[in-house]
Amino acid sequence: MEQSLPNKLAGQVDVMRVALRLCFGAVPLLAGLDKFFNLLTDWPHYLSPLAAGLLPVAPATAMHVIGVVEITVGLIVFSRWTIAGSLIVSVWLALIALNLVAGGFFDIAVRDLVLAVAAYTLACLSAAHESAARRDSAAGRSDRIAAARNAA
């Protein structure tokens, strides 16, 4: 028997939520680790001169601190606090985009703004998922209580 459209959509939405969670957990985690090794790129190169001038530490040291933040946020996205983590990722990516604009990296800034919207989408999907799970749990409790009352 074929599923109804709402059931098919719910399944697809959940697949998208899991995919976004995987991406916004793994990418900050891996990028944060790479801030210590510079295998993917020379990360201090992407720090705008304005930001570098405001920092009390060398750009490489700043990237190490940023790496720790990114690792932490990636782990938060993978934890039960996915909503908070994905909101942090969204704001973080918007701030990165501002830094990139100040450094003249407009193409990468646009990409990071799009990613910020996707991270916000993960927060919205996760909130809806948690709300539905609570609603289903409450409905299940109500059904069990009603069944117990009818049996008594």
Largest sheet: none
Helix/strand/pairing class, anyone?
mainly alpha
Could you tell me the radius of gyration in angstroms?
21 Å
Helicity level: over 70%
Number of helices: 5
Task: Calculate the mean pLDDT score and round it.
Answer: 89
Order of helices and strands: HHHHH
Domain unit count:
1
Shape: elongated
Number of strands: 0
Distance N terminus to C terminus?
Answer: 37 Å
The residue ranges in which pLDDT falls below 50 over 5 or more consecutive positions are none
What percentage of amino acids are in beta strands? under 5%
Question: Please, could you describe this protein's structure?
Answer:
The protein has 152 residues and is an all-alpha fold. The chain has one domain (5-151). It is built from 5 helices and no strands. It has helices spanning 5-34, 49-54, 59-78, 82-102, 106-151. α1 runs antiparallel to α3 (59-78). The longest helix is centred in the C-terminal third of the chain and has 46 residues, at 106-151. It starts with a helix and ends with a helix. The model has no long low-confidence stretch (mean pLDDT 89).
List the helices and strands and how they pair.
Blueprint: H1 5-34, H2 49-54, H3 59-78, H4 82-102, H5 106-151
Helix pairs in contact: 1-3, 1-5, 3-4, 4-5
Short précis:
With 152 residues, this protein is mainly alpha-helical. The chain contains five helices and no strands. It has helices at residues 5-34, 49-54, 59-78, 82-102, 106-151.
